[in-house]
Amino acid sequence: MTVERDKTVDVLQQARDAYERRDWVLALDRLRGAGDLAPEDSMALATSAYLLGNVDEAVRALQAGYQDRIRNGDSVGAARFASWLGLLLNARGESAVGGGWVARAQRLLESETEDVVERGYLLAHEFFQQLGRGDLARAAETAALVVETGRRFSEHDLIAQGLMMQGRMMIYAGRVPEGLALLDEPMVGLAAGGSLAHHRRNGVLLADRGVPGAVRLLTRSVVDQCLDPMVRYAAGAGSLHRSVRAASRPDHAVARGVRRGAC
User: Fold this and answer.
1) What is the pLDDT of residue 9?
2) How far is the C-alpha of 198 from the C-alpha of 75, rounded, in Å?
3) Average pLDDT of the residues in 69-97
């Protein structure tokens, strides 16, 4: 029994080390065989799978993390996994299922009396709903509130998400250079004591070591609003993108995306 436990611990440490080195393939392989995972390891598994293009496995990892938190009576932790599930599923066009996960996250937090950062993640879903309705003023307010909540809790993932939202709103308002700068900022401003490098995998910017793992998942998920089906989350908002088509930086990945009509 002790030998088996030591082997599991060793595999898990290998997975964590690989994850920190951005070796997504090895991290994913080791996490798959590591047995029961802590919440942060479940998120690492989901992130690694997502960055390697395996969205189904990322969803399964998040679901497993959610179920683990429910079994342990951690409704706040479960709400965080549910919120991420809502984001990923909505991003690939499964709005009914994604919306169900968002509703579940909201329900889990209803009885929570403390001011918790997970409510900030739910604000992100409100932002996309407001955007889809064409309520730009309210969406801009929500984006600012997401950033404020992230900063209040020193939650880098949430700050990154809010900055990307604010950048998007600036682009819609015709302030393209400022908006693109805000889209870039999470990639260079969230390093925990280290530098960032930009890497491309399948045309998507990935954060370097020093940024929390969920930011890596978030970077692909949210930046893909201009490169992937994330735009479906704000279905019906196509008319809002016209000002973006005049983007003056054709060499920028996001600008190329909006010029193709993806944003």
Assistant:
1) 74
2) 35
3) 94
